[in-house]
Amino acid sequence: MIETDSDGDVCVVTLDRPDHRNALTPAALDDLESAVDGADAPVVLLGGAGAAFCAGADLDAVADLGDREAAEAFARRGQRVAATLAESESVVVAGVDGAARGGGVELALACDVRVATPEATFAEPGAAIGLLGAWGGTVRLPEVVGLGEAMDIALSGRVLDAEEALRTGLVSRVVDDPRAVATEIAGNDPAALRTIKERLRDDGDRAEREGREAEAFADLHADYER
C-alpha cells in the first residue's frame, strides 16, 4: 500500500493502491506514518500511484468502524499521520497528480509544500455523505486558503481544478513534474531547510518567535562558510 524509494536527497513515498484510488485504510495510515517517520532524506515527496493522488479514507473501512469510540479513534489516527507530515524534520512536498479528495486533501494540507500537475483536482466531499474532513481538515484548510474560501470549498463539496487550487493558495505551483520541485528544494543546505521549516511553522508569540529566529540564525552562522 505504501512504497518508499530513495532518490538521492529525496525520499519518494507513494500511496500505492491505484485500483482504489489510493484510499487509505487504518493499516495504510499506520504504514504511511512509519514511512514518513523513518525517512532520513532532507526532502520527502508524497505522491499517489495511478490516476489519483488519494481518495481519502477508505469508505468501506469507515462503514465498518461500528461505534462512536471507533470513529473518533479513526479520526485521531488520521490526525496523527497529518501531524507526522507537518512535524517531520524533512521538508515534505505533496505532489498532487490526479484526484485528491477528503483525507487526500487533508494530507496534502499537512505538507510543507503543495504542488499540482495540470491534471490535479481537489474536493472536500464530506458534506454530501454526512461527514466532514476530520484529519485536521477543518483546522488546516482555513489556515491555508482563508476562512471564506474554506467555507466555500468544504460546504459546497465542489471540485477545484489545478488553476483554481493555485488561485486559492491551496497549492503554490502547477508543474508537469512534482519530483522536479522536490529535487530543487533538496539542492539547498539540509540544516537550513530543517531550520526554516521549524521557524515558519512556529506559531507562538511574535516576539518569542523573532527571538528564536535570531537564535536559529546564530546556530546556522556557526557553520556558515562564505
TrEMBL record:
Family as reported in the entry's similarity comment: Belongs to the enoyl-CoA hydratase/isomerase family.
Sequence segments annotated as region (Disordered): 202-226
UniProt GO molecular function: isomerase activity
UniProt keyword Isomerase present: yes
Pfam families given in the database record: ECH_1
Protein name, as recorded: Enoyl-CoA hydratase/isomerase family protein
Swiss-Prot/TrEMBL keywords: Isomerase
Organism phylogeny: Archaea, Methanobacteriati, Methanobacteriota, Stenosarchaea group, Halobacteria
Superkingdom of the source species: Archaea
